[in-house]
Amino acid sequence: MTPTVVTGEAVVLDVPCARFPSRLLALLIDMAVQVVLGVAALLAIGAASGHLNAASVAAVVVTATVLIIVGYPAAFETLTRGRSLGKMALGLRVVGDDGGPERFRQALVRAMAAVVEIWMFTGAPALICSLLSAQGKRLGDLFAGTFVIQERLPRRASLPPVLTVVPPPLMGWAQGLQLSRLNDQTAEQAASYLRRFYELTPAARDEFGRRLAAAVAAQVTPPPPPGTPPAAFLSAVLAVRRAREMQRLAPPPAPPPGPVTWPADAVAPAPAPPAPERTQPPPPGGFAPPG
Questions:
Q1: Which letter, b or e, does each residue of 209-222 get, where b requires 16 or more Cβ atoms within 10 Å of its Cβ?
Q2: What per-residue confidence (pLDDT) applies to 278?
Q3: 75, 143, 208, 222: which is deepest, by most CB within 10 A?
């Protein structure tokens, strides 16, 4: 299941919830680790009990139990941003209801709730709550405001090459295709159908194809030419949508080089030509002054 999560920045996310079998196996791994730690702590306490009285031994046992059952999972999940050893092995992660990473407060609440719903009642309350919750939440998740997601997913199959291009008979029709009303959910359903096209039985292939083609045709214009097979119609619509999206995201071409123009205030004015040297006129009578 993939619930819709709205983050604090109003971003809508589709996150896949972890399935119950994988969560159960991760829980068993974590409990096995805690049991091993508990046995090791009891052996260490037993070896040192000769130097302690009964009250001190009881206090140390209680402290070690609290640290292993509550402190260890809370600290480990906080440091690893929502992943315990079992969740790491199964590709799971604990996140907040807003899709953000798990905080220490949330990890502590989950660990404290696990004492009651898992350790004291052998997991029965967690099982019942997980089966009733749409997101598979146990009681600790409800109190902490968290849920578990599947972080590692199998690789999604790609479209067959023949279904990634516009069929030649639809080339002219596809040039005037209007896709502004085609929403992402319908487009993803059509792409999922084409990815599984050769895996479906002929009857299921025809039935799903007709339904999806009708849903897509209600959101695009003009309608496909009469007699167009659903697979060809869906392939053409998705190919045009993909090409236009790539064209929209492509960087704009660089402008061609042109003449370099400088602003007027950046050009220094040319220096003025020097003024001609002025000479004194000769004295009256044509005599030159004495040297």
A1: beebbebbbeebee
A2: 56
A3: 208
Q: Which two tokens stand for residue 200?
A: 């479906």
Q: Per-residue pLDDT tens for 193-204? A: 888 888 888 888
Extract the tokens encoding 273: 């030509």
Tokens standing for residue 242: 């993909």
**Amino acid code (one letter) for 60:** V
Q: Which residues contact 254 (CB under 8 A, 6 or more apart)?
A: none
- Asked if the bond preceding 226 is cis, omega within 30° of 0, the reply is no
Task: Note the pLDDT of residue 1.
Answer: 47
CA torsion through residues 60, 62, 63, 64, sign: positive
Q: What's residue 84's pLDDT? A: 93
Amino acid at 85: L
Cα 199 to chain centroid, rounded: 28
Is the pTM higher than 0.70? The answer reads no
Q: Output the six-digit token pair for 82.
A: 């929502």
Return the pLDDT at 219: 93
CA angle (68 as vertex; 61, 80 as ends), nearest 5: 160
The full DSSP string for the chain is ---EEE-TTS-EEE-PBPPHHHHHHHHHHHHHHHHHHHHHHHHHHHHHGGGS-HHHHHHHHHHHHHIIIIIHHHHHHHHTTS--HHHHHHTEEEEETTSPBPPHHHHHHHHHHHIIIIIISTTHHHHHHHHHSTT---HHHHHHTEEEEE-S-PPPPPPPGGGSS--GGGHHHHHT-B-TT--HHHHHHHHHHHHTGGGS-HHHHHHHHHHHHHHHHTTSBSPPPTT--HHHHHHHHHHHHHHHHHHHHSPPPPPPP------GGGSPPPPPPPPPPP-PPPPGGGPPPP-
On whether the CB atoms of residues 240 and 180 are closer than 8 A, the answer is no
